[in-house]
Write a structure and sequence with these properties.
Shape: elongated
Largest sheet: 5 strands, antiparallel
Structural class: alpha+beta
Number of domains: 2
Order of helices and strands: HHHHEEEEHE
Helix content: 40-55%
Strand order of the largest sheet: 4-3-2-1-5
Number of strands: 5
Radius of gyration: 21 Å
Length: 177
């Protein structure tokens, strides 16, 4: 069947770095349903979803539980399983973003300009990590085509390393001899 238009035009040009508002709304509703399913709360989905939206993604499950206890509008069963569940809810956001990146890669087909084993000099810091600061030497230790990222490390024989987008490494590093 012939397509009426090129649907890759609907995919943003730049690599997605956040989930969409619609995805976030659905994620919180899904999390609220899970919360009810696992009997961590018997309140309604909307109230639970609103409570979960207010939690800091950087907090631990324990800190999130404390915040819900102090500020939540729903009532919750605060046990170890619930705290573990709260600890893991941020992975939902990461999984959605990972799928967005895969879709972006499929639409735009970015190709790596570097090969595994390439020695690089960092010309602009890639991170706050001491290993990824300006003038450090690193190696490409892996390439992930599905999500368009390199793994880089100071150890050229390492399997893995820091995970960075093709474009970030290519813009901020130069090939070193």
């Amino acid at each position: 069947m012939e397509k009426l238009f090129d649907d890759t035009l609907l995919i943003q040009k730049e690599r997605p770095t956040q989930i969409t508002k619609q995805q976030e709304e659905k994620m919180f509703v899904d999390l609220a349903k899970e919360c009810i399913k696992y009997q961590y709360s018997s309140d309604d989905e909307e109230t639970i979803a609103e409570d979960l939206k207010e939690l800091s993604i950087n907090d631990s499950g324990f800190e999130k539980a404390k915040d819900l206890e102090d500020n939540g509008n729903a009532s919750y069963e605060f046990d170890g399983d619930f705290i573990d569940w709260l600890d893991g809810i941020d992975y939902k956001r990461r999984d959605i973003l990972k799928e967005n990146v895969k879709l972006w890669v499929k639409a735009h087909n970015p190709q790596p300009k570097l090969e595994k084993g390439t020695k690089l000099k960092i010309i602009e810091s890639l991170s706050y990590s001491k290993d990824l600061r300006k003038d450090c030497l690193v190696y490409v230790t892996g390439i992930n085509m599905e999500q368009a990222y390199y793994t880089i490390s100071e150890d050229k024989d390492k399997q893995g390393g820091y995970v960075l987008a093709f474009e970030k490494v290519e813009l901020n590093c130069e090939v070193s001899e």
